[in-house]
Amino acid sequence: MFHAVVAIKQVPDTTNIRIDPETGNLVRAGVPAILNPYDAHALAAAVEWKGKLGGKVTVISMGPPSFKASIGESIELGADRGILISARQFSGADTLATSYVLAKAIEKINSEDPVDVIFFGKQAIDGDTAQVGPGVSVRLGIPVITYCSKINQIDCEEKTIVVQRNAEIKTELIRATLPVVLTCEKEIAKVPFASLPNLVKALRYEPEIWGYEEPLELDREKVGTKGSPTIVYKTATPEQPVAGELLDCEILGVAQVVKTVLAKDKFSVLIESAVGGK
Ligand SMILES: Cc1cc2nc3c(=O)[nH]c(=O)nc-3n(C[C@H](O)[C@H](O)[C@H](O)COP(=O)(O)OP(=O)(O)OC[C@H]3O[C@@H](n4cnc5c(N)ncnc54)[C@H](O)[C@@H]3O)c2cc1C
After folding, report:
1. Phi and psi (nearest 5°) for 267?
2. Domain map of the chain by residue range?
3. Which of 116, 144, 149, 209 could be cross-linked to 187 through a Cys-Cys bond (beta carbons 3.0 to 4.6 Å apart)?
4. pLDDT by 10s per residue, the chain, length 278
5. 124 CA distance to ligand 1 centroid (A)?
6. Are strands 160-166 and 10-12 parallel, antiparallel or unpaired?
7. What gap in Å lies between CA 267 and CA 31, rounded to an integer?
């Protein structure tokens, strides 16, 4: 039977991320949150393959208690089990600490119920590093295929998978052995509308909460800020380019357009120096 684990992250529902200037951490308070869009597509793919092969889908997330909402949404979308790894000590984790805790959680899940495919989104839309999936695969010592756009085949008997991967100027068809980590593009699967039974199940569903002390045996030096050699030191939103002014020769006439252009500060400096140079 097929067993997929999907790592999901809750992210702010905005492209204008606010960062605490003191700590460099993301400000979550007062910002509407959503399931990271790439993770929703990765989850849809896992559920789709559960439908084809039979089996189950487990979602895991590391974050504050508010992340329960995204686990609930995952149950609506067809996940069977949801685990939230949550404790004050995990906060401030960079990708190294995040991938350490997620890998430990996956090891535990796998020891009870062997895992075939571990799905990640291509990237989280807040941190944007795209490092967590590959980081987990290295810690687990299993292959990773990034930027997956399609799963062509999963064979749980032969323990193989064939996926399509988007590279810059070509599409690759890759065959790998299971278990495998995939990081997924949105094309991997359409996010379906939740079915009524799943909606009802999600209403009553309480995710398992895994804490700092148990059930994972964690090296305390490797979690949270202690285990995070990087911090977000400073962030700023890049200035948006302002649209240029359009002068239409057919409407204004060429003479007027040239006059207007020459009257612009930057152009007059340019022209002057060009004339001066001759
Ligand atoms: C603006 C900003 C910049 C940051 N820059 C850095 C940086 O340069 N270096 C650094 O080490 N950290 C950075 N961080 C911290 C980073 O957000 C956290 O380490 C985070 O837990 C994982 O990184 P990411 O969001 O980039 O995830 P990505 O690696 O982009 O996420 C890929 C996938 O991993 C899974 N995933 C990610 N986080 C979780 C989670 N908590 N639980 C379950 N699944 C998860 C999801 O499937 C997701 O789609 C930054 C955070 C912010 C808000």
Report:
1. -70, -40
2. 2-222, 243-278
3. 149
4. 899 999 999 998 876 566 777 776 667 677 788 999 999 999 999 999 999 999 999 999 999 999 999 999 999 999 999 999 999 999 999 999 999 999 999 999 999 999 999 999 999 998 889 999 999 999 999 999 999 999 999 999 999 999 999 888 899 999 999 999 999 999 999 999 999 999 999 999 999 999 999 899 999 999 999 999 998 877 776 777 787 888 888 888 889 988 888 888 766 555 445 454 44
5. 6
6. unpaired
7. 44
Q: Which atom of ligand 1 is nearest to the CA of 25?
A: 53
Distance CA 168, CA 264 (A): 41
Instruction: Give the residue among 195, 209, 196, 149 at the shortest CA–CA distance from 47.
Output: 195
Neighbours of 195 (CB within 10 A): 12
- Among the listed residues 103, 91, 107, 79, the one whose alpha carbon sits nearest the alpha carbon of residue 26: 91
Tell how strand 180-184 and strand 160-166 pair up: unpaired
Between the CA of 95 and the centroid of ligand 1 the distance, in Å, is 6
- Reported pTM: 0.85
According to DSSP, residue 77 is labeled: T
The CA distances from residue 145 to 2, 12, 84, in Å, are 18, 27, 25
Q: How far is the CA of 133 from the centre of ligand 1 (A)?
A: 10
> In this structure, what token pair is assigned to residue 254?
């060429």
Q: 154, 174 in Cβ contact below 8 A?
A: no
Locate the ligand 1 atom nearest the alpha carbon of residue 120 and give its number.
47
Q: What CATH superfamily classification does 2-222 receive?
A: HUPs (3.40.50.620)
Residue identified by tokens 């944007």 is 128
